[in-house]
TrEMBL record, chains A, B:
The protein, known as: Alpha/beta hydrolase
Species per Swiss-Prot/TrEMBL record: Spirosoma validum
A Pfam family annotated for this UniProt entry: Esterase
TM segment ranges: none
Hydrolase is among the record's keywords: yes
Family: Belongs to the esterase D family.
């Protein structure tokens, strides 16, 4: 391969040098706050699961402190975002929430783990056996969290008994399912654009049937949607119905907020909604501490 | 030191084991997207400056692509946040903005670099020589950016000629100062809670004097404030005045948005405002690409 006459070959050397980052400067790696990946074997899910763990940086004054925990679904999408939010918002000069541990759960079989019923119906109510085969394992997944994951985290990290369930889309569906079926597992629930359309609005009906008017449910609950299907879509109507159902039930102690983001898409919305959710859950933190 | 009888000493060994993260699991380090720290010597600032650089992850299809650049002030506060936002918002399944390089500039002498005039007056208009000694070096700092930093970045990284100036507080003041005095240096300007109170509203007056009614200024400009000093404070009034001044000037091509966040503090606001600023600047990106 004689593409260049010999006398011009020095040119390629020069080009390589120019393309290297930093000329005559000293370059180091930028250090992000450290997080780790723990692999555990789940007997219930019959598989190895990777779990992302981010602990607050502790100084000598914090050595004996224990921290609340946020468990976030779709770990590969939103774990690093939440880790960044809690680190920043808990800085002494920001002081909007306590230092918090973040646990991210990346998916293996997302539809299996994050849907409450076995259904093959898609967003439009039509059968889609290729996408939704094997759906309906959320109860088993919540049992995995309750009996395997949370005990492991509580045993190995400096947790205190305040836990938040954070989920988006099917993860938001799981958050509401957990609030309805195992409310005592967590103290606060975040459901960002929950897929309430799932299985002919199964969870929306269950919300109405499960929650008894005037009963006690001492939890914080943030839920939201973006512009999915635009303003008059059934996606948005389902969220409006969820809010109306909660209002109608007059539950004792349920501190909830519904926020609609008409300019955000299904995928951009979590960035702002997770921030607003943390601000909502910890709105009274500064005055109480 | 004989605190425990010998037969109980095994206890302390057990405690140490239990406190270690992860029992019978495999633990690895979580990998954040890589960023680097470049140290350059500035002749203008007469000092070594650390610069944080975050480049998009490129796959084989992107190998020859070049990227816009966001320059963010107060690098230790907001570089990692912006790096996270651009990585997430430019993912193929989110697709809200192009892949973008983020440059973070941590401070050495913040007041010197980020204030436009030499003034000792504090927020309340009273002299504070201890805090503001040496203020007024922003013009020299902008020259450092124009003649030393930006050329170095353009030489060493795959930039394309679209640049964003992102600043908060004194950094927001610098952003507006740059827009008024060197508008062609950047294509878009973000001023989150700019300290317009600086030196008896120096920049607010300069905005009115510098911008000629009906003149052309083809830039994007996002500015915002939180609840600084509450609703009727002069901090908020200064922002309202800035918006009124821009409206009055009827500038050709200036695409600006002012957003007020009454529930956010001076330090929580940047988290949501930087997100909104990127969404504003790239609002037409999806349809144009």
């Amino acid at each position: 391969m004689k593409l260049l006459p010999y006398s011009f070959r020095w040119l390629s050397v020069v080009v390589v040098f120019v393309a290297l980052p930093a000329q005559a400067q000293h370059t180091q790696t930028y250090t992000y706050p450290s997080s780790e990946v723990v692999t555990i074997h789940s007997k219930l899910l019959k598989e190895e699961r990777k779990i992302y763990v981010h602990c607050p940086k502790v100084d000598s004054a914090d050595v004996n402190k224990r921290f609340p925990v946020v468990y976030v679904m779709d770990g590969d999408n939103h774990f690093a975002l939440l880790a960044q939010y809690v680190d920043y918002l808990s800085r002494p000069d920001v002081s909007a929430m306590p230092k918090t541990i973040v646990i991210g759960i990346p998916n293996t079989k997302r539809t299996r783990d994050l849907t409450p019923t076995n259904s093959l119906l898609n967003y439009e109510g039509k059968p889609d056996s290729s996408s939704y085969q094997g759906s309906g394992g959320n109860e088993n997944f919540l049992q995995f969290m309750a009996t395997e994951l949370i005990p492991m985290i509580d045993k190995n990290y400096k947790t205190r008994p305040y836990k938040i369930f954070a989920g988006h889309s099917f993860g938001g569906l799981s958050s509401l399912n957990c609030l309805l079926t195992h409310p005592d597992l967590f103290d606060a629930y975040i459901a960002i654009s929950p897929s309430l359309w799932w299985d002919k609005e199964y969870l929306l009906k269950m919300t109405d049937e499960t929650l008894k008017t005037g009963s006690a449910l001492n939890k914080a609950f943030f839920f939201s949607d973006g512009n999915e299907g635009r303003a008059n879509s059934f996606f948005h109507k389902d969220l409006v119905t969820l809010e109306a159902t909660l209002a109608k039930k007059k539950l004792k102690g349920l501190d909830y907020r519904y926020k609609h983001y008409p300019t955000e898409t299904h995928m951009t919305e979590p960035v702002v909604a997770y921030f607003d959710a943390l601000r909502f859950i910890f709105k009274d933190w500064e005055k109480h501490r």
